[in-house]
Design brief:
It contains 15 helices and no strands. The protein has 358 residues and is mostly helical. It comes from Apodospora peruviana.
């Protein structure tokens, strides 16, 4: 049954078309994931902007998953009445009327019954569903393409809804630079799914059901395609949400800052440090210009000098310093620790500035 919807020829055509586009991207993403730890970029909490995008994608994905439930699918008169395809229309709709609450057909049932004029209309019913067959004002059973033209807006409606959700979730206003990075790829994937959907519906061989003599042999293309369509859109949204989460938390697909960005962030950090130093200088100048504060500051430092001098002249301190210099201090270890401290001192402000910018 599934082979009627997706055969090997279709899959091969899609791979030939999308393979050269997607394969280099997949390799680049793998290399980015593999090389991410080398850039010393740490995992961070999920930004609030990306969290809002994830909520939107989760809501849309859940909506499409709910649409796959059989209870929400359009009614299929053949499965409801347990009738085969070749059953006379009068018998089919008589059975359907007995299953209605008031024992009579609805207006939609009456319209649909008028469309069941031959075997061709029943086959088109299985391909395009009840709404298209009953509501199309210009369609004819001998022109199957007319039903396709009428069905295209309904086919594109869920794709357009999903595309709008992706556009909002990946916009720079909502999710920042993390979402905008994946905006193009998500749009291409959404267009690819919509194009594939239209192609499969238009190329489906609806005449294959003509040979089915039992209800179990019928392939209900419209209902199957509806489930596959919703599942594909839900899967796309879930995949995009997962990629956004991994990117925003620096767990995968990490893009290290460019040299220009690192220089800019370091410049901002140095400007901040310079501002603090200037503030300290202002306070110090104020203290020096005030006679009372200057006298208290001078007295404090004179006292500290005398105190430290007395401490350093004590015998126990002198012996302890000599012992440490001769036996317990490793100059190599001190040098290595100093290098690590300086490296951390330089990189930590840059990392904080990057987090604040995000």
């Amino acid at each position: 049954m599934v082979s009627q919807y997706l055969n090997w020829g279709t899959i091969k055509s899609l791979l030939i078309f999308f393979g050269p586009i997607l394969l280099p991207k997949a390799i680049a993403y793998y290399r980015s994931y593999r090389n991410a730890p080398r850039h010393n970029i740490k995992i961070q909490p999920l930004p609030s902007a990306v969290f809002r995008s994830l909520l939107l994608l989760a809501a849309v994905s859940t909506f499409f998953l709910i649409r796959t439930l059989p209870i929400l699918s359009p009614e299929n008169v053949f499965t409801v009445t347990q009738s085969r395809l070749q059953i006379p229309a009068d018998v089919l709709f008589t059975r359907l009327a007995t299953m209605r609450a008031n024992g009579s057909l609805s207006d939609f049932d009456t319209t649909l019954r008028a469309k069941f004029v031959n075997m061709e209309s029943r086959l088109l019913y299985l391909q395009f569903g009840p709404s298209v067959l009953a509501d199309c004002p210009f369609c004819a059973a001998d022109d199957s393409s007319s039903y396709l033209y009428y069905a295209v807006p309904d086919l594109l409606a869920p794709h357009l809804l999903n595309w709008a959700a992706i556009a909002v979730a990946t916009s720079a206003i909502v999710s920042g630079r993390y979402g905008s990075r994946w905006r193009t790829y998500a749009t291409i994937a959404a267009i690819a799914i919509a194009t594939t959907d239209i192609y499969l519906v238009s190329s489906y061989n609806y005449q294959a059901n003509r040979r089915a003599t039992r209800l179990q042999d019928l392939y209900f293309f419209y209902w199957r395609a509806r489930v596959y369509r919703a599942a594909a859109l839900a899967g796309l949204d879930a995949l995009l949400a997962a990629v956004l989460y991994l990117t925003a938390t620096h767990r995968a697909f990490v893009s290290p800052p460019s040299p220009a960005e690192r220089v800019e962030m370091l410049s901002r950090v140095l400007s901040s440090v310079k501002g603090r130093v200037n503030a300290v200088g202002v306070v110090k100048n104020t203290a020096n210009r005030d006679e009372e504060l200057h006298a208290r500051s001078t007295a404090y430092w004179n006292h500290e000098v005398r105190l430290m001098q007395d401490v350093m002249e004590e015998r126990e301190v002198i012996e302890g310093v000599n012992d440490a210099l001769q036996n317990r201090i490793d100059i190599t270890t001190i040098t290595r620790d100093a290098d690590a401290y300086v490296t951390h001192l330089i990189n930590e402000p840059t990392r904080k500035a990057q987090v604040q910018e995000e």
